[in-house]
Design goal:
Layout: E1 5-6, E2 17-19, E3 44-52, E4 55-62, H1 81-94, E5 97-108, E6 112-120, E7 130-137, E8 149-152, E9 155-166, H2 168-182, E10 203-207, H3 213-253, E11 261-265
Length: 279
């Protein structure tokens, strides 16, 4: 295995912070009830019902509804050229650089994580390829879930991250059983991890350009965030886990029953164009 670099994820002032809310299992406030859709029976042109998946579905064709009158937007205040330029300059100063990153994380035995991530190429006009990296981390990346964006060193990172868990002993037993039952040798091997730092959140790069500092900064930022907010991140993960288990237990004890549903639709005809129109 080639080891390219050991990160120094945390050093000096830690600027990492989560952008937006961190999901912690707390239930969202209930949505206000939607207004009831009421149709006069005299406006129902046809109706039919059928059974589907244990419920009754009723389809009603109704008369076309009157068009909603859309209010005109408020008139924007008139700005001089100097005021407009000042607003644009202020917005540019407040705008944070944003980078998009795709992360795949496999957590092995709740001890270490195999990471693979990709970023777009640097060139603005090059949309064909991506920069790819691979590393091993001493952080359980299941704790770094529950949010999608964070800031580090003045840059906003928007992530799409998939995280899975691997129990190596259970995996080995399942593979051995399959090979024994089917008389085959699958040749599967678990990826080998390097020796990882033991003195704080960190990672070892195993594939990718170690000189691409911009490509490594996203992982530096995530590890800095973990160093700064570890207790909060772990508590939020445990809260989500508890809420999920409680929800699963509730649904098992109270399986949802399909409810009858009524669907309404109407048809309108587009008026024929006037003679000579569009010429």
């Amino acid at each position: 295995m080639l080891l390219f670099a050991v990160s120094s994820a945390v050093g000096g002032e830690n600027s990492a912070r989560i952008i937006g809310n961190l999901a912690d299992g707390t239930a969202s406030p209930p949505q206000p009830p939607k207004p009831e859709f009421v149709v006069d029976e005299r406006d129902v042109l046809s109706e039919r019902s059928f059974r589907q998946s244990g419920r009754t579905v009723t389809v009603k064709r109704i008369k076309p509804l009157p068009k909603q009158l859309v209010p005109k937007p408020p008139v924007a205040p008139e700005l001089s050229e100097e005021e407009w330029e000042a607003l644009v300059a202020e917005a540019r100063m407040k705008r944070m650089e944003t980078r998009f990153v795709f992360v795949s994380a496999t957590v092995y035995d709740n001890e270490k994580t195999l990471l693979r991530w990709q970023l777009p190429n640097r060139a603005e006009n090059d949309h064909r390829g991506r920069r790819s990296f691979e590393a091993w981390s001493n952080v359980d990346f299941l704790h770094l879930t529950g949010f999608g964006s964070f800031e580090y060193e003045g840059v906003q990172y928007d992530m799409i991250m998939g995280v899975s868990r691997m129990n190596t002993e259970a995996w080995k037993r399942a593979v051995e059983k399959y090979e024994y039952d089917h008389g085959v040798d699958l040749g599967y091997e678990l990826p080998e991890s390097p020796e990882l730092p033991a003195d704080g959140p960190d990672y070892v790069l195993t594939d990718g350009d170690a000189s691409d500092l911009e490509g490594l900064e996203v992982m530096d930022g995530l590890h800095a965030l973990y160093a700064k907010e570890r207790e909060t991140l772990v508590a939020a993960y445990e809260g989500r886990k508890k809420a999920r288990e409680e929800r699963e237990a509730y649904l098992k004890a109270n399986p949802p029953r399909p409810e009858d549903v009524t669907l309404y639709f109407s048809r309108t005809e587009r008026p024929a164009p006037e003679k000579g129109a569009g010429r």
